[in-house]
Amino acid sequence: MDELYQNQEEGAQRVYQEPVSPWALENLPGDPMMWILIVSEILVFGGALWAFAGNELLNVEIYREARTHLNVPLATINTIILLTSGLFAAFAVRFGKFKQTGKARLSLLGAGILGVAFMALKIYEYKEKLALGLDVETNTFYTLYYLVTGFHLAHVIFGLIILGIIALWPTEDNLESGTAFWHMVDLIWVIIFPIFYLMGQGL
Fold it and tell me: How does it sit in the membrane (predicted)?
């Protein structure tokens, strides 16, 4: 009886000493380190976008004229492509939860193909700008345009590598971690798109 009582007391102490916080990283899907990376990347992009918005207040006419050379229809198509890619990534996680490995891999393939399509259209858009003589030294708008969208494109490429890796080892944890990064790439583009392409159009 003494031994039983001691075991119960130790169990109660463990429960008390290890409370589960609703904000703990361990409660998020996937690897907590991936979430630390995601938050840090969002903060970096956030700082760059704040700098862009602040600079626009000082150079309204330059920014308004610069936006007239952006390919809004192409960027809109690219937005749809990337969001659809994120939907395929979400499907992959769902299939992974039900141990449907083949369908999870097909969904990752679909997400990856759309990611490559986004990358190809973005490079085409860069070529359009360069053909017009609009490069990183044209003005502050295009300096930040190339830096921010180029940094995002680098994340797309890195995200495609991650999708390829988790397609090889589609465990539930890998799927949740990898697709979380891909959704971060989607989210950042959804913020970049209106700030660079749409703001100031009616002014």
Answer: Multi-pass membrane protein
Work out the average pLDDT over 41-47.
Answer: 91
Candidates 66, 35, 51; CA nearest to 139 is 66
| Domain membership flag for residue 4 | no
Spatial contact of 90 and 104, defined as CB atoms under 8 Å apart: no
Least confident of 22-26, 33-37, 81-85, 169-173: 22-26
CATH code for position 160:
1.20.120.80
Provide mean pLDDT across the span 124-151: 95
Angstrom distance (rounded) from CA 7 to CA 150: 59
- In whole angstroms, give the CA distance from residue 185 to residue 41: 10
- Cβ atoms of 107 and 196 within 8 Å: the answer is no
Question: What residue has token string 């990856």?
Answer: 112
Sole residue written with tokens 């169990």: 11
Range of the domain at 162: 31-198
Rounded to an integer, the average pLDDT of 40-66 is: 91
Structurally, the chain folds into a number of domains equal to 1
Judge contact between 70 and 196, C-beta under 8 A.
Answer: yes
Sign of CA dihedral 105, 111, 115, 116: positive
